[in-house]
Amino acid sequence: MSEDFNMSMRKFLKQVGVTSQQAIEKAMREHDTSGKAFPVKAVISIPELGLEHTIDGTIAGADKGEA
Length: 67
Prior knowledge:
InterPro entries: DUF6494 (IPR045471). It comes from Sulfitobacter faviae. This is DUF6494 family protein. The protein is α+β, with helices and mostly antiparallel strands. Helix content is 40%, strand content 30%. It has 1 helix and 2 strands, in the order H-E-E. The protein is elongated. The chain starts with a helix and ends in a 7-residue tail after the last strand.
């Protein structure tokens, strides 16, 4: 794959990671999540290529003020 492809892929994945973490932390701060675990799903899609990639997982809740 080309260098341009690699750089654009890395930039996109970094943006996904950073913005997703910020959104999850904000949601955790706004709710009492201590002692709980939350199922989580991430979906990456490129409709023009017929791609839909789903990742399922679990995120443990944070003590109030920790997230």
